[in-house]
Amino acid sequence: MTNDHLLLNWMEESRALVHKGQVADYIPALAQASPDALGITIHPVQGSPLTLGDCDQIFTLQSISKVFTLILALMDRGEEVVFSHVGMEPTGDNFKSILKLELVPPGKPFNPMINAGAITVTSLIGGETPEEKWHRILAFIQHLASDPDIGFNEDVYESEKATANRNRSLGYFLKDVGVLEGKVEEQLDVYFKHCAIEMTCKQLARLAVILANNGLDPDTSRQLIPAKYVRIAKTFMVTCGMYNASGEFAIRVGIPAKSGVSGSILALVPGRMGIGIIGPSLDEKGNSIAGMHMLERMSEAWEFSMF
Ligand code: GLN
């Protein structure tokens, strides 16, 4: 069987599982996504991308944006400043959790992949004004994707902004303890915008292949991200990228990956390929059911695991 045929079989198998989950609705605009959509792009470090399924489906990055805001904050402020504001340990709690915020004085979030950590990291990104900071984040993603047309979804942004009581409470707590820089509402606004950046799985796989290639653009061989920051991002993806399912994912699939509540997953096989997936039906931990199943099948068949 060719790789295309294998992938198509696995897609059919994965689609049959989506009824077990549901589309995220705590951000009301996300509830409009079609639960059984499934699209995947595999972008090899050498060779051309392979795209199958609902590849025209446009989705918002949500938590996947946390990987790139972390990288940008590291490029802007360096490791010492970033890791004096946010830790390096997984929590085992859900991504919105407030539970462990008081454990590391003065109130340092455990890692940059949970909401509290990502809101903090957003506050560290360079820019004189919130607008400048937001434009720098968007320009960075456009640059990596090599696509100046990438934008954000105004409805999803407004919808999250209008309902984000939990993120707001995290932001005010972080400000109170002196971990968050700047004004809370301004930082939250930038955070909601970068979560609402939208793209297709083809564009997502292009971001992933740069990480798979240690920050080098496979087309031009230009170093778009310093390799030392790609290494940090990949490590967080392994330890915390799939929320509180990261341990199980490391055993079953064994590669760096990051998911978003839109049902998107960015994954990569170091040195080999970047992968972008969209499948909006989520399991109870907030990961794409079909996407997780596809990655498990691919990892088994093509020996992806790093371990
Ligand atoms: N914007 C979402 C939130 O803050 C991102 C969460 C996610 O994708 N897990 O709740």
Give an overview of the whole structure.
It is a single chain. With about 300 residues, this protein is α+β, with helices and mostly antiparallel strands. It folds into two domains: about 5-60 and about 200-300, Beta-lactamase; about 65-195, DD-peptidase/beta-lactamase superfamily (Beta-lactamase). About 45% of the residues lie in helices and about 10% in strands. The chain contains eleven helices and eight strands. The strands form two sheets. A five-stranded antiparallel beta sheet has the order 2-1-8-7-6. A hairpin with a 3-residue loop joins β6 and β7. It is globular and about 60 Å long. It binds glutamine.
Nutshell version of this structure?
By secondary structure, this protein is an alpha+beta fold. The chain has eleven helices and eight strands. It folds into two domains: about 5-60 and about 200-300, 3-Layer(aba) Sandwich (Beta-lactamase), CATH 3.40.710; about 65-195, Beta-lactamase (3-Layer(aba) Sandwich).
